[in-house]
Amino acid sequence: MLVVGVLIGIYVGFLTNGPTPYRVPVANAGSVDLTLQTVAAVGPLAPNPTWVSYLVRESGVWHRSTVWTVPANSLVHVTLYNFDGQSGLRNPFLAQARGLVGGTFGLNGKQLTVINPDAASHTFAIPQLGVIVPIQGVDDNAPKQCDLAPCPMSNAHETITFTFRTGKKGHYRWQCFVPCAAGFVYGFGGPMQTIGYMDGYVDVV
Amino acid sequence: MWSRSSDGRRIAAITVIGTAIVLPLVVFVLGPNMPPGKATEVAKGQVTDNTVLLVVMTPFTVFILGYLVYAIVVFRAPKGETELRDGASMRGHMPSQIAWLVTTTAAVLFLAIFGTTELLANNGAGSGSGPNPVAKPSGAMLPVQVIGQQWEFTYRYPTYGGVETAELVLPAGQEVAFHVTSLDVVHSFWAYELGVKADANPGVDNVAYVKPTKIGTFQIRCAELCGLWHGYMFDTGRVVGAADFNTWIAAQRKQFAGVEKYLPKYSPSYSPDPTFRAG
Amino acid sequence: MSLRRLIGFNLLSAVVLGVAGFYAGWWLGHQITGPSIAYFSATNQNDIALFVAYLVGVVGFLVGLGFANYPVQRLLGKPPTLREKEQQGAARYFGLCTDHKVVGIQYLLGIGAFIFIGGLNAMLIRFELMRPTHLVWNGNNYLTLVGVHGTMMMGMMTSGILGPFANYFVPLMIGARRMAFPRIEALTFWLLMAAGTILMTTFAFGGFPTGWTGYAPLNEQANMGMDAYIAFFALVGLSMTLLGLNMLATVITMRAPGMTWGRLPIFVWATVSTSVLMLLAAPVLISALLMLTMDRAAQTSFFNDQAGGSSYLYENLFWFFGHPEVYILALPGMGILLEILPVFSRKPLWGYRLAVTGMLGIGLMSFLVWQHHLFVSGINADVRPFYMLSTEIISLPTGFIFICALGTLWKGRIRATVPMLFSLAWLFNFLIGGLSGVFLSDVPSDVTTHGSFFSMAHFHYTIMGGLLFAFFAGIYYWVPKMTGYNFNERLGKWHFWIMFLAFNSTFGPLLVIGFLGMPRRVVTYAGYLQGANDWVSVSAFVLGASMLIFLANLIWSQVFARVPTGVNPWGSKSIEWQLPSPVPVHNFDRIPTFGSDPYPYGEDAGSMLAQRPVVSPARPTP
Question: Within 10 Å of residue C565's Cβ, how many Cβ atoms?
């Protein structure tokens, strides 16, 4: 009986085990700053070192967390450094940004609404909030490609900046729409379907 | 002969009276409120269909449950009877077996014929009917392509320059032909209030017809397990007046003008790369 | 325990060899694929290594149990024996044993353990669904829970009744001393245990997101956890094929004198019909899974649309197995129902031939209906009227079972024992299950109900309300004969009433929730359905708690209280109840001769036997 109880406990404990949420600190009233990097291979930070992933910067250090806690009804300023190459979208329609404050996003300082779908590396998307941002990939011929995360800023990268407004409280999923999981059917297995790599939650509290 | 016994008469009476009480409730109370409601012509047809099924089932249900309860109450061995006593040796009764066979066969054949009629007369009843449905509505249709992808539905309107939208809006009173396809795994486009469900298969054009009649919103859900975010693959669609629809689609074309040049030419299905499980 | 027994061929060596074989295969798989195929290192998902690991692991497990001993000895020229049967004591339940009665009890405990895991997963799923949005499990774990629950239940319960009860009682009922192939009989059980263990390892490889149906191409996209699903179902399919083959051979060739086809107990007929389905349907599953294995491990494209394959092919192959599969689950339950009703109505089975026709008819028809699972898929839309007709026609033979059950109750002397209560509840549950099935068989209605909680509730009504209630009826009816100890009747009735009410309180509302627009296997749902879902969840927890009452009853009555059963507590006229409890190893002193079917209630015969006694009660039972 005791053994069975312990086994059930281990089982349930194993299932509840997930990525630790990262609480984005409030920068000033009504807005927070979220700094991310996207890397082609997450490296020794994760059980699957060859998988593509997002990292988040927490007090100057890069962590692997894809569950982010942000306040409700406030602006989230996202700065995203992309070190990954170009994969291309399955559905080119998703190369146009939606749901952003001001309607545009910055790509290396230039304000845009759409990029060439073939040059897309990832998308940052929170479908329930209507937010989708295409992320330009690093050109294959660019020098100093990053191999393993965390990538230093000296490596080739693209800088994407945008702002979106969180609505009411809730637990929203985010995902990537670019088939960037190399090797999987339709490029959509593995990291694309595992929370902690290219999927996660945005907790609006 | 047991059918002439008082037990048989009582069970027959229970069945008849029970059916007489339940049937009006089914027809007038439950039936009209059956899902999926009355927002479209096919949904109305499905409500009728559900009601007919309930009506056919009612006498059988009342008979079996009535019989069961009657048997448990009346044929129960007396309390405290310790000695085992056998009932009568009855190994069958051909007339009642034949009667049962005839009744159930009649009900089954009726249901199959009725279902087929409804399916054909109701333009496929909102079901995904493959690329070339036999039953299709006559007259002008608004084609709308539903593209399932992991994990969002997007929509294309080929008669409006092939514009692609993130939101599904339909004009009321207009016959719509959904062309459902997928870019990756199998999804299922389920517009609940419209009474439409059609699987989205990669490389397949799955057509379903519907004519929305009521202005309002409807739920869209994915009804086929499609991976991690299957549970989050939902959306709300809108049925609006014809003028509002024209305004909306013009605004969409303007908003998504930037991406329009990148969209592939409208096609019944798409086969974008990459295809293989290879690095 | 002596060292000699510890290092022989037993469960311990089986586990050691199984685990060693797994790692050996894992290493071997990496040696094969590591340098040559780049994508396995790119994806970090070496499917070949995992498949080889499972294969070598299962072989090691079986060798450890001693399945290789007999063939090797025969090859070396030793004479044939049935030595595995001659073990004594409790140890024989934990190793290869060819006594059909031991295998029956092994099945009961082994399958019971895996059903417990499946049920636990159901509780965890219902916990998550108490909120319309995310509550505890993240998306990956939730889908894996759903998949493991469904797969475990569908896989294990295929042998849920045939495993324990048919293995134990079919030889007795037809007057045989053993099954036709005793080693194959033991093999079917140990294959299932290996399969269940393999399915649980899916958690270590990222789980699988496809549910029990495993639709393509999602199943090719999925992580290595999917390989556990494939290995599990392939082993279950193999076990089913062998079990069906063995049962058919036994019933056809080993019936005692006087046991004509017209006198076979109806449970044996249900076994025959189920075995035919197993023999014909399970190989289809195995071949479909083999194709899937090739797709995943060797880059073929049977099911990958954009490389020339078709996801429809998988759907067709799967449901060509999958629909007979649900009747593999339902038919043994009908057999138990019609076996128990005569005993506790004290009347012969009413309409014996009609019941047999019904069972064989269901078996035949079940191969002609599978495309009703694809009504909205867009494939072969023009032949839907045929599948609508065939699906509705299958309710005719099912109706035969009902009318035979009702006819048996007619003017009987019904005793409300625990097995009888479960049987009567079967009638109620299966009625609702069958009627809800009519909605799914009708295309216009299927548009709303397909893939929704309605269809989920429908098959829980037929499988859980049908099969599991019959399973418990069988347990309360037959386990006293298997162990020699009675159950506590009061606890049994508590178990029944709580289970029956909680079951209906769980799945009744789910029919409505499905009609109101909630799809299956989702982790989120519309807010207005939360009240109903909370009700369902609480009912499900009560349903789960009723299983704990059963477990308490099982342990209390079989381990502690130990009230002896006696030869024939139910007053049945069937042969197994003329034998001592538990049944001795050799079954009968001499092969019995039958004079009637097992239902001569109200007739002169004291039992179905033409001659008595067939076993001397004085002979000690081991």
Answer: 20
- Residues of C near A (Cβ–Cβ under 8 Å) read 39-45, 120, 124, 133-134, 136-141, 145, 203, 206, 209, 217, 220-223, 304
pLDDT (tens digit, 9 = 90+) per residue, C278-288? 999 999 999 99
* Cβ pair A190:C124 closer than 8 A: no
* Residues A177/B149, Cβ–Cβ less than 8 Å: yes
Which residue in chain C has the smallest CA separation from A201? Answer: C138
Contacts 24+ apart (CB under 8 A), A9-12: A11/C120, A12/C124
For residue C557, what pLDDT is reported?
94
Give the pLDDT mean for C415-438.
95
3-state secondary structure of C243: helix
Q: Which one, of B264, B268, B138, B101, lies nearest residue B200 by Cα?
A: B268
Helix/strand number for chain A, H first, E second: 1, 14
Question: Can you tell me which residue has the tokens 């930037």?
Answer: B258
Find the domain containing A138 and state its range.
33-204
Neighbours of C621 (CB within 10 A): 13
Quick count: other Cβ atoms within 10 Å of Cβ B255?
16
Which residues of C526-595 form beta strands (DSSP E)? none
Model pLDDT, residue C36 = 53
Which residue on chain A is closest to B154 by alpha carbon?
Answer: A93
Cross-strand partners of B169: B238
Instruction: Using a CB–CB cutoff of 8 Å, tell me whether A114 touches chain B.
Output: yes
Which chain A residues are closer than 8 Å to B150 by Cβ?
Answer: 186, 188, 192
Whether omega before C397 lies within 30 degrees of 0, making that bond cis, reads no
Number of domains in chain A: 1
What does the alpha-carbon distance between residue C143 and residue C126 come to, in Å, rounded to a whole number? 13
Pairing of strands B196-200, B187-191: antiparallel
Instruction: Assess if residue A15 is contained within a domain.
Output: no
- C494-532 pLDDT, tens digit per residue, is 999 999 999 999 999 999 999 999 999 999 998 899 999
- Domains, chain C, in order of start with CATH, read 1-77 (no CATH), 100-578 (1.20.210.10)
In a domain? residue A63: yes
Amino acid at site C200? M
Q: Which ipTM was obtained for this model?
A: 0.93
Rg (CA), chain C: 24
Does A46 fall in a domain? yes
Assess whether pLDDT exceeds 60 at residue B276.
no
Please check whether residue B264 touches C, CB under 8 A.
no
- Answer yes or no: is pLDDT of A180 > 90: no
CATH number at residue A144: 2.60.40
DSSP string, C279-300: HHHHHHHHHHHHHHHHHHHH--
Give backbone dihedrals phi and psi of C621, rounded to 5 degrees, phi first.
Answer: -90, 140
What are the backbone dihedrals phi and psi of residue C237, each rounded to the nearest 5 degrees, phi first? -60, -40
Q: What's the average model confidence in pLDDT over C182-199?
A: 94
Do the beta carbons of residue C146 and residue C125 sit within 8 Å? Answer: yes
Average pLDDT, chain C: 90
Residue A79, helix vs strand vs coil:
strand
Q: How far apart, in whole angstroms, are the C-alpha atoms of residue C326 and residue C589?
A: 39
- CB-count exposure of residue B242 (10 Å: 0-12, 13-18, 19+): exposed
For residues A138 and A152, what is the distance between their CA atoms, to the nearest angstrom? 15
Q: Helix (H, G, I), strand (E, B), or coil: what is residue B208?
A: strand
Of B258, B259, B277, Cβ closest to residue A183? B277
pLDDT tens column, A34-83: 899 988 888 877 888 888 888 888 888 888 888 888 888 889 999 999 99
What is the spatial distance between Cα C138 and Cα C128, in angstroms, rounded to a whole number? 10
DSSP three-state, residue A48: coil
Average pLDDT for residues C159-177, to the nearest whole number? Answer: 93
- The residues that bridge with A120 in the sheet, in sequence order, are A136
Phi and psi at residue B169, in whole multiples of 5°?
A: -130, 135
A4 found inside a domain: no
